[in-house]
Amino acid sequence: xxxxxxxxxxxGAGASGMAFxxxxxxxxxxEMLLVDRRAQPGGHWVDAYSFVELHQPSxxxxxxxxxxxxxxxxxxxxxxxxxxxxxAAEIQYYYRKVLDDVFKPSGRITFHATSDYLGQQDGDxxxxxxxxxxxxxxxxxxxxxDATVTQSTIPARHKPKFEIEDGISVVTPNALVDIADPKGxxxxxxxxxxMDVCFWLLQQGVDPDEITWxxxxxxxxxxxxxxxxxxxxxxxxxxxxxxxxxxxVASDANDYAVRMEEQGMMFRVDPNIGAVVNRGATVSRxxxxxxxxxxxxxxxxxxxxxxxxxxxxxxxxxxxxxxxVFVDCTAPGLSTTPASTIFEDGKISLHFTxxxxxxxxxxxxxxxxxxxxxxxxxxxxxxxxxxxxxxxxFLDIMRIGLPTDNERRTVSELAAWSAKARLNPGRAIPDHxxxxxxxAAFAAMFQNYQPAMENxxxxxxxx
Length: 463
Known about the structure:
Layout: E1 2-11, H1 15-27, E2 32-35, H2 88-106, E3 109-112, E4 115-121, E5 124-129, E6 135-146, E7 152-153, E8 163-164, E9 169-171, H3 173-176, E10 185-188, H4 192-203, E11 211-214, E12 218-219, E13 221-223, H5 234-249, H6 253-262, E14 266-267, E15 275-277, E16 282-283, H7 285-291, E17 296-298, E18 303-306, E19 310-313, E20 316-319, E21 325-328, E22 333-334, E23 343-344, E24 347-349, H8 358-370, H9 375-381, H10 391-408, H11 412-420, H12 436-461
């Protein structure tokens, strides 16, 4: 049995693991061992369907040390006027480049591909190669880093929870590009993947009337205008001001979302149908308009079985026909995680600690780990944010996250690092402080902050 030593054993080379490792590489002199069951770094992006794109700009995705894209503003298409968003192939190439051009040349990061973490034995950690079966004992000097706690469950690796009669065409989005002459298409799932599939079908010229969209629960989305960085970062403050103002007076989570919708910050595909789900999807207004072209919407709960003539659902049936293709978009995507602890003795769990995307959260945890702080101080600066996937959970993240943002600004080393971090979505906000609209937004946010915090405490604990 092989035996090696390292400072940090990082389980998972996806977006979180890579961003954390990159920050430790730049901020410390420690050694790291990255382990992943996939053959390449990049996590769920390695298995992604070909037409998927980021829901947020490339400008704050990836790792701090290497830009993703060119910070270009798109001039055409549904993303026109917004910062570019990388697709699956570009992201896969990017993470390989991070490994080859940044991690390996450092001599301080080793990558074990196609390997599983088996747990601890006699004080050591065990990893096993899935190709050779060889097990390696790893002595960890500082901490085991679990970068899998928020991993995504995606269609390519998801097994449907409904029964499928032999001969019925049920495909993942990955296989959708290979279908030919379908006799109608039914999209199962209302989340990010379902929206991606519906929009892609429309882009390919499929008649909206040929698409049936099964949406057991409707989804709240954010207008992508308010997720733009750099030259448009002032819009983030406008969104934050509206969020705090709405949180100060909302009677519950749904009322909050409706108030944000009235201000044009958030959307539902159908504004007449109540929505509870919020998993962080952003859309542009052209995307929203396209999705609203699909009128055959089914809200009868979840699918339980599919035959050649019908789909049995929780609350009835959906007629089907031979040759119809069902696209399974029911994988839950980003995992829901309860409140937990990020820093423990000898272990770091990369839960979300910011309201942004996974790379920024993980990089921030990496920076805090590099500082000379106690476990209590680290956890005070990086509380784990619960992710329930609904609007009430979104408000709970605000309740915990807003005071923590203020707390982090009091730590000079952390504030200085954040100000220059590429992954920080709001790093360019100081450049917009002379904008009258931004000034007004800040004033409104400060005015409503305390009432919002008091009201969020009430909303988030009520039964």
